[in-house]
Write a structure and sequence with these properties.
Length: about 150
């Protein structure tokens, strides 16, 4: 797997069925280790260990509907009232983050209506603040502290 622009963490791998699996501390199960999952697991640990986001308020690969289509959000961080606070879209390190990627994440956030939207491929990370009432977006220089 790629060396990412995220802190290292102690992960648990296993081999089974001809595949490599990584343990997900949020869902408490092993998942097939794909490049995107590698990024997702690193980012989850970064949010918990470095940013202090509460583990209990993270949901991984939750379902959502947009234009009657079923979609999956990579990571949603909820606030203490149970409302979506941040949506995180994870991509493979091989996939560049461009306008199309940001547009896809923004489309998901139209349904979720999180205050913050983050897109990462493990190498580059972009975080935006959304004011859904005013319809404005601001790119942030750093990840917000959990409120």
């Amino acid at each position: 797997m790629h060396k990412l622009n995220l802190p290292d963490f102690e992960y648990t791998l296993r081999k089974a069925d001809g595949k490599v699996w990584i343990f997900d501390v949020i869902r408490k199960k092993f998942l097939v280790l794909t490049p995107e999952e590698w990024v997702r697991q690193h980012f989850v640990h970064y949010m918990i260990s470095d940013l202090g986001y509460p583990r209990a308020l993270l949901k991984l690969e939750g379902g959502l509907k947009y234009n009657m289509l079923g979609k999956r959000s990579d990571i949603v961080v909820f606030d203490r009232q149970g409302e979506p606070w941040m949506l995180v879209e994870c991509k493979s390190p091989d996939q560049s983050i461009n306008e199309t990627t940001l547009r896809q994440a923004s489309v998901y956030n139209k349904t979720i209506k999180a205050r913050y939207l983050t897109v990462t491929n493990g190498l580059k990370h972009y975080c935006c603040s959304y004011d859904h009432t005013a319809g404005t977006v601001s790119v942030l220089a750093a990840f917000p502290a959990f409120e």
